[in-house]
Amino acid sequence: MKRYLLIDDDEIFNFLHAELIRKADDNAIIDVFTSSIEGLTYLTDCINKNEPLPDFLFLDIRMPEMNGFEFLNELLKLPASRIDKIKIFMLTSSLDERDRKTASSYALVKGFIGKTFSIERLNEIIEEYR
């Protein structure tokens, strides 16, 4: 049973991505946040309470309170032994190559996905980290 965390300020993308995850993994546990700050608080609480962390995090780059890169910088302040197990994929509708380059500079980030990701791409990701 895999755990998935979606952090994107766009509720429509969260809904679509959650549905795709359910189709790809019918045993999925999915948590969704439209606030990067709330998503970070959730992860911090999981660590502090020694609760399971998500296997996969799909993180939007462009968000109003704290963008995806600021989120990653805060995430790096948490215990590496816990956060290193999360497979993080950056989501964006931007075609800006600088975003892709910045995302790849984080060792935690496993990939960069354009919105909306496809069921085929999701299946590839799940299979790769089985």
Mean pLDDT: 94
Q: Compute the separation of the termini in Å.
A: 11 Å
> Count of helices?
6
Low-confidence residue ranges: none
Spell the H/E element sequence.
EHEHEHHEHEH
Q: How many strands?
A: 5
Beta content: 15-25%
Can you give the helix content as a percent range?
40-55%
Oligomeric state of this protein: single chain
| Largest β sheet strand count, sense and barrel closure | 5 strands, parallel
Radius of gyration equals 13 Å
Strand order of the largest sheet: 2-1-3-4-5
Report the principal-axis shape: globular
Structural class: alpha/beta
Give your account of this protein's structure:
The mean pLDDT is 94. Helix 1 links the parallel strand 1 and strand 2 (29-33). The longest helix is centred in the N-terminal third of the chain and has 14 residues, at 11-24. 44% of the residues lie in helices and 21% in strands. The protein has helices at residues 11-24, 36-48, 68-75, 80-83, 97-104, 119-128, and strands at residues 3-7, 29-33, 56-60, 87-92, 109-114. It is α/β, with parallel strands linked by helices. It has a 5-stranded parallel beta sheet, sandwiched between helices.
Task: Kindly summarize this structure in a few lines.
The protein has 130 residues and is of the alpha/beta class.
